[in-house]
Structures are given as C-alpha cells and as structure tokens.
Specification:
This protein has 191 residues and is mostly beta strands. The protein contains no helices and 19 strands. The strands form seven sheets. The protein has a four-stranded mixed beta sheet with strand order 5-10-8-7, with no helix packed on it. It has a four-stranded mixed beta sheet with strand order 13-19-17-16, with no helix packed on it. A hairpin with a 5-residue loop joins strand 16 and strand 17. It is rod-shaped. The termini are far apart.
Length: 191
C-alpha cells in the first residue's frame, strides 16, 4: 500500500490517490547459508543422535528468522566421519544449504565372558561375549584369536579391534578352562 501522486498540468499541487497494489516478492535463496550447530561431533552411544541447529545466516542479510525444514542428515546412529545435514528454505526462503557433522567411535575396555568347553581332541574356540556396560558389542566389531586351546587345562583367547566400527576396543585377553572329558563307560575287554 502506498500513496501515489499525480502531477496535473497547470497546477503546482499534487493530488493524493490511494489504492491497493499487489507486489510479487520472490523468495530469498539460502544457497551458501552458514548453518551453526550446537555440536559438530558426537561420540557413538548406540542411540540415534541429532545435532541442534542454533543458527542459519546468509552473508549480507540481516534477517535472523530464516525458515527451513531439515531434508536429510538430521540424525544418525552409527559412526561416520562425515554426515551431511541438508536444510531447505520454506515460506519466504528457497533453496538448500548444508553443514557437516560426525559420530566418532567409542573407545572401550569391555567386559568379556567366555563359554565353558570340554576337551574333544580338536582345537576349541568357545563363544566370546563382549559388553560395554549392559550393551552387547556386536561380533563384527572385534576378532577373537585362540591359543593353547586343544588339550584339557587352560586356553587363551585374545580380542583385537576391527577398524572402522562403532567401537575402538582395547585389546584384552582371557584364560578359559578346558575341562577333561568324562572317561568312557562302555569299555569292552578282550577283543
């Protein structure tokens, strides 16, 4: 809305005219906007994590209430060196802008349980379970290497980290008992 003035010939005065005018305002692009996050790096915790956006700013633009929706990368669970969070402008804003964030592996010295086993004459590889507190660490996160594991007595299992997982597992080892086999009860004499 506004006043429009028209100059009439022969008069030095102007007449005021009031009318409604529609003006098309093109949405402002947020391409290249700087997205500020509360945190850019999270440590793996087995739960979905989401960075909080604390600001979106455009160069040479004073408006502080840029409206947007998160299109992708707003949450993740597993370790990644680079997660791209993408926002898309809404309302008076258009286009997209991105920012990188990441989830880093958790370093743990897990608790370990080794299943019991009994002598069979073969090398034994009893099941191993690792835990980070109450959380079971998936088998793909580590390898188990066995030694001294054939005869009755004590075997050894050593745990090694597998690179690229959600955990960095401190190398640990544990002795495990190999019980003697029961003596056979059906021995026959003299044949």
């Amino acid at each position: 809305l506004g006043d429009v003035y028209k100059r009439q010939e022969g008069y030095e005065k102007y007449a005021a005219v009031t009318d409604i005018v529609k003006v098309h305002v093109a949405p402002k692009s947020i391409e290249g906007a700087a997205i500020t996050l509360e945190k850019y790096e999270f440590q793996y915790n087995a739960a979905e994590q989401s960075p909080e956006i604390t600001g979106v700013t455009l160069e040479d633009w004073d408006e502080t209430r840029i409206t947007y929706v998160i299109k992708s990368g707003g949450s993740a669970t597993d370790v990644s060196d680079s997660i791209t969070l993408t926002i898309e402008g809404t309302g008076n804003y258009t286009g997209t802008a991105t920012v990188e964030w990441k989830i880093t592996p958790k370093t743990v010295t897990p608790t370990m349980k080794v299943a019991s086993c009994t002598y069979t004459g073969d090398a034994l590889e009893p099941a191993v379970a690792l835990k980070d507190g109450d959380a079971v660490i998936p088998e793909g996160e580590y390898t188990a290497e066995y030694s001294n594991n054939t005869n009755a007595g004590t075997g050894l299992v050593a745990i090694k980290d597998v690179e690229g997982g959600n955990y960095i597992i401190t190398s640990i080892s544990r002795d495990f008992p190999i019980d003697q086999a029961a003596a056979p009860t059906n021995i026959q004499h003299g044949t």
